């Protein structure tokens, strides 16, 4: 394989991962010249180009050295590792990216009895992920027939081509619409930055390291929330105990109310309604959860 001096990242041409992947790369300071419906996008500032392809092709392009990195679902990456053939170079998940979240699950028709994996013995399970399903069935020691389908897996039980399915689930709406019940989760998936196990020992390796650093910063900010609230000094300890993880909160006095404090806390990750309700019960008032735009510690 000819060496390249520019980094090449494979990403999905058109689908669920396209917009969030481009958004993430843009936040990392990368800009691209050509329109995104072309196969190739030329990087303007940094020596980083994009190859826009079907998501299933991404792990193979990295394994062959055609691309240095790829943004792809963990489901597709792990399936490739299991079924990509003997010459497939092992790939590495460099970073989870926090979007494209879904799970690979087994679902059965509502009228099928299911309590444990052994209930699948002698049954047919339809899937587009024969590698991941086969691997799971082996660990469970169950003898089940895997029916590989390219798409529309969820209708296989109705068509009579399978007894159960193994497919990606996000909200579960598709399952409900097809009278299916989710019974096992095989894999929790999200988009990941995939690459070879060892980085190239040239400028591309340096560029990847720079990109990883920027990604970490962008992901950290994206997942941070600023929590603002007011509490009296007497409930401060109870409120502080309930705060989601993060650095020590900052306390500010409230003018004209000596027993009151303003509390400001940086939280790593979402703050749920339930957490807010608990904190309120402990004595907090005037609560705000704000996204963080940029952060320089
Ligand atoms: P392509 O034309 O690139 O092959 P595709 O139809 O295989 O596209 P999409 O449906 O766009 O792919 O899904 C891309 C990825 O998004 C999946 O591999 C998975 O990681 C993630 N994803 C998140 N939620 C879902 C979902 N509900 N169904 C399918 N994929 C999902
Ligand atoms: Mg695909």
From TrEMBL:
InterPro entries for this protein: ATP-PRT_HisG_long, ATP_PRibTrfase_cat, ATP_PRibTrfase_CS, ATP_PRibTrfase_HisG, HisG_C, N-reg_PII-like_a/b, N-reg_PII/ATP_PRibTrfase_C
Domain Histidine biosynthesis HisG C-terminal, first and last residues per copy: 223-294
MF-aspect GO terms: ATP phosphoribosyltransferase activity
Activity-regulation annotation: Feedback inhibited by histidine.
Keywords linked to the UniProt accession: Amino-acid biosynthesis, ATP-binding, Cytoplasm, Glycosyltransferase, Histidine biosynthesis, Magnesium, Metal-binding, Nucleotide-binding, Transferase
Primary localization: cytoplasm
Sequence ranges assigned to domain ATP phosphoribosyltransferase catalytic in this UniProt record: 54-216
SUPFAM superfamilies linked: GlnB-like, Periplasmic binding protein-like II
Function: Catalyzes the condensation of ATP and 5-phosphoribose 1-diphosphate to form N'-(5'-phosphoribosyl)-ATP (PR-ATP). Has a crucial role in the pathway because the rate of histidine biosynthesis seems to be controlled primarily by regulation of HisG enzymatic activity.
Protein name: ATP phosphoribosyltransferase
Organism: Dyella ginsengisoli
């Amino acid at each position: 394989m000819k060496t390249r001096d520019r980094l090449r990242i494979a990403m999905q041409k058109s689908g669920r991962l396209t917009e969030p992947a481009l958004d993430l790369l843009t936040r990392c300071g990368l800009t691209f010249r050509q329109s995104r419906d072309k196969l190739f996008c030329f990087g303007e500032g940094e020596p980083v180009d994009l190859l826009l392809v079907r998501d299933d092709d991404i792990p193979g392009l990295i394994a062959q050295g055609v691309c240095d990195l790829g943004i792809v679902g963990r489901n597709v990456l792990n399936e490739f590792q299991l079924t990509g053939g003997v010459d497939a170079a092992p790939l590495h998940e460099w970073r989870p990216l926090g979007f494209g979240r879904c799970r690979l699950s087994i679902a059965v028709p509502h009228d099928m009895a299911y309590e444990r994996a052994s209930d699948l013995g002698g049954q047919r399970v339809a899937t587009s992920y024969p590698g991941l399903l086969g691997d799971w069935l082996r660990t469970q020691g169950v003898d089940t027939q895997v029916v590989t389908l390219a798409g529309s897996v969820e209708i296989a039980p109705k068509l009579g081509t399978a007894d159960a399915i193994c497919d990606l689930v996000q909200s579960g709406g598709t399952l409900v619409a097809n009278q299916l019940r989710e019974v096992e989760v095989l894999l929790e998936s999200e988009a990941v930055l995939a690459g070879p196990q060892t980085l190239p020992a040239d400028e591309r390796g340096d560029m990847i390291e720079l990109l990883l650093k920027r990604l970490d910063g962008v992901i950290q900010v994206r997942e941070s929330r600023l929590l603002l609230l007011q509490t009296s000094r007497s409930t401060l300890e109870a409120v502080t105990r309930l705060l989601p993880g993060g650095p020590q909160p900052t306390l500010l006095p409230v003018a004209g109310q000596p027993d009151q404090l303003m509390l400001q806390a940086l939280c790593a990750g979402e703050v749920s309604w339930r957490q807010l309700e608990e904190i309120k019960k402990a004595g907090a008032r005037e609560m705000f959860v704000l996204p963080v735009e940029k952060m320089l510690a």
